[in-house]
Amino acid sequence: MNEVVSIVETIEDAAEKKVLRHALGETMCASFDVLWPLIRQYPDLDPDKDTQWHKDREARRAEREVPSENEPNESLERTS
Question: What is the dihedral of CA 48, 51, 52, 55, to 10 degrees?
């Protein structure tokens, strides 16, 4: 896909480039819709698993996790 994007960027005709960039965007969205459920089910297949983007995403996800019932949650405790 990256090669196709590189080739499209070399096209000088602005109208043609716009049409092709739109088609590439649609293709990338469609592939994401297919791949995301697989990556969620099989995280080892994630091609981004070793990237900084992935590490940042996992850190954000961990921040959003709700503590279990057995863990104290200081943010929910009343202060007097």
Answer: 60
